Amino acid sequence: PDDLEKLAGLTRVQYVFVYPNADGKAGEVVLAGPAEPWMTDATGRTIGAESGAPTVLLEDLAAALRCFAPGHPRDRLVGCSIDPRQEGLAALQAFLKKVGRVNPNAGADELVAGMKDALGTQIVSVQGLSPATHFAQVMVEADYRMKLIGIGLEPPPVRMSTWIDQASGGAVAANALQRWYFVPDYQCVRISEDDLAIELVGQGVKLCGADEVVQADGTRLGANRADKASRMFTETFTRKYAEISGRNAVYAQLRTLIDLLVAAAYMQEHDAYGKAGWGAEQLRDETIYAIERLTPPAEVETAINAVWRQNRLLTPIGGGVTVHPRRALDPPNLLVDEKGTVDAARTGAQALPADRWWWD
């Protein structure tokens, strides 16, 4: 049913409540958060009719639960990466050596075309879950589009400084490779004293940078110096993430995916399945509920831009998403429910309607 697939219009997972078996009654695991009527936008995304925020999808919840099923490894990495091939990087270095990084009066369009031809397509890899899921495709799209913003090929949805705006020729090595990747804000879980409820707080996502340099043979090494423009871009993107995700649905979807992974890791860590007497077997079984039905992204067209700064050619590329959901549950990252608000929210929602799977 459509209301089940769209989780009754839930637009964010704010709470997870566990109600253990008691007095012969089956327990419950409840996801709670804001919800509203839904509709489909021009791109095919399901969004809230009032806020425009994308709805949480059952298939994404199922993907997260499969990552942290009972009895499975706890410290699982989930993510994606879009990387140039080593032979492509070697060809790019040879091309740049041939044309020179000091302006040869060649047009930018010709340079970009030459660089793209040298690099070829980039490899898409997905870790921790099936690349044929909607979950995986959202991660890849968010990664790719973030990179387009950083290098000036897609306008940012809000007023902000991008890497291409701030980069200077003197500060960037001739063989520099910029890498930007999304990670969770791991201090995102407030947990009740009895461990039966959590609240997911904050925006949940950070953008980080890792500067590298490329050798002549295409191998990559960590850079010895940080790029100030890269740091400014990642810090600004992180600071404005809530605003950005309000303008571009894919970033709101990425935040939801991270929330779902953290929720699933919590359910596994605190044995919500055993306490509630519910194993989510149907959601975790691909033969019963098929979510691996999309064409896996194997490669993408190289996104590259070239600008001249101080008679130097700047050519940034790279990106990814890296999520270790279990880290959000490490004691140093957990937020204490000092005022008892998380426990109070769970207690207040305890009168669950017996004949409905959702309620207001």
List the helices and strands and how they pair.
Elements: H1 2-5, E1 15-19, E2 28-32, E3 38-40, E4 46-48, H2 58-67, E5 78-84, H3 86-99, H4 108-119, E6 122-127, H5 134-150, H6 163-166, E7 176-177, E8 180-184, E9 189-191, E10 197-200, E11 205-209, E12 212-214, E13 220-222, H7 228-239, H8 241-247, H9 249-269, H10 272-276, H11 281-284, E14 299-300, E15 307-309, E16 312-314, E17 319-323, E18 335-336, H12 341-348
Parallel strand pairs: 8-17, 9-18
Antiparallel strand pairs: 1-2, 1-10, 3-4, 5-6, 5-17, 6-14, 7-12, 8-11, 9-10, 12-13, 15-16
Q: Give, in order, the helices and strands.
A: HEEEEHEHHEHHEEEEEEEHHHHHEEEEEH
Estimated helix fraction: 25-40%
* Major sheet: arrangement of strands: 11-8-17-5-6-14
Gross geometry: elongated
What is the gyration radius calculated from CA atoms?
23 Å
- For the residues shown, what is the average pLDDT? 85
User: Which structural class matches the secondary elements?
Assistant: alpha+beta
The proportion of residues in beta strands is 15-25%
Task: Give the tally of structural domains.
Answer: 1
Major sheet description: 6 strands, mixed
Q: How many E strands?
A: 18
Could you name the ranges where pLDDT drops below 50 across 5 or more consecutive residues?
212-218, 220-224
Helix segment tally: 12
Instruction: Quote the distance from N terminus to C terminus.
Output: 19 Å
